Amino acid sequence: MLSLAFCDLLSLEHELAQRSDSSWLSQTECERLDDIRSPRRRLEWRAGRWLVKKLIQEQIGDRAKSCVELCVESRDARGRGARPRVFVSGTLQPWQVSISHSPCSACAAVAIENSTSLGVDVTPKQPLPHSFSRMWFTNDERAWCEERGQHARSLVWSLKESLYKSLDAAQPFAPRQLDVVKEFSLFDIHPGELLSGRATCLSNKSGKVVIHSTQHEIATTVLWKNVA
User: Fold this and answer.
1) Which whole number is the average pLDDT over 217-222?
2) Which domain holds residue 221?
3) Of 33, 70, 135, 155, which has the fewest beta carbons less than 10 angstroms from its beta carbon?
4) 96 forms bridges with which residues in the sheet?
5) Please, which residues have CB within 8 angstroms of residue 1's CB and are 6 or more apart in sequence?
6) Can you tell me the distance from the alpha carbon of 123 to that of 137, in angstroms, rounded to the nearest whole number?
7) Are residues 125 and 206 in the same domain?
8) Residue 82: what are its φ and ψ, rounded to 5°?
9) Contact residues for 120 (Cβ-Cβ < 8 A; gap 6+)
């Protein structure tokens, strides 16, 4: 089961201002937060964890743990950025989690299954230049974008980010090796369906994509089933 949350940061900032950090962050998370100096980055970090914890509580229902018992860790043993993992009272859980931020929003996805893999991304709608797509997009992706207007490049980039996260790749991010147009058969989809104001869901044999398009941003989620 996949749960998604996509919220603006101002709303989350107001909600979190009503709570002390120690009332919902674990001790480890409080220590991580203390290392973050930028007020904006602190808000983004807190917002992502708040969304993840609320999604987990919704999914596990009457088995729900308090937020303090849940710890979302996105650093490895060497302190480097890593795929988020969830611990309950110090025990690692087989839950799939992904978090993304933008200047305006935070999004998160949770799947309480060990047979899935997922990734989320939120990207501002902005006129990415042709030089950007020539460097990072495949030929098919560039052709697709040319037919679909100025926000198509932002959508393709967001899909690449989400797809990479969902693969949990050990290799560095190599955007041109991820062809999202072919992977998700985007040539078969009318552009208005993908960039409308409502959520759009695409499916293939092994997974699905959910696209949220607002006036200023695009959020994408990639979910794979039966991951070995």
Assistant:
1) 90
2) 121-225
3) 135
4) 111
5) 59, 111, 112, 113
6) 16
7) yes
8) -145, 170
9) 4, 98, 99, 100, 107, 108, 109, 162, 165, 219, 220, 221, 222
Judgement on whether residues 66 and 154 belong to the same structural domain of the protein:
no
Are residues 175 and 137 in contact, defined by beta-carbon separation less than 8 angstroms? Answer: yes
N-to-C CA span, the chain? 17
Four-residue CA torsion sign, 43, 48, 53, 58: positive
- Domain stop point among 114, 137, 172: 114
- How many residues would you count in the chain? 228
Same-domain check for residues 104 and 133? no
What does the pLDDT look like over 2-36, one tens digit per residue?
Answer: 888 989 999 999 999 999 999 999 999 999 999 99
Number of compact structural domains in the chain: 2
Alpha carbon 220 to chain centroid distance? 7
Quote the radius of gyration of the chain (alpha carbons, Å): 18
Residues 10 and 73 in one domain: yes
Give the mean pLDDT of 77-103: 88
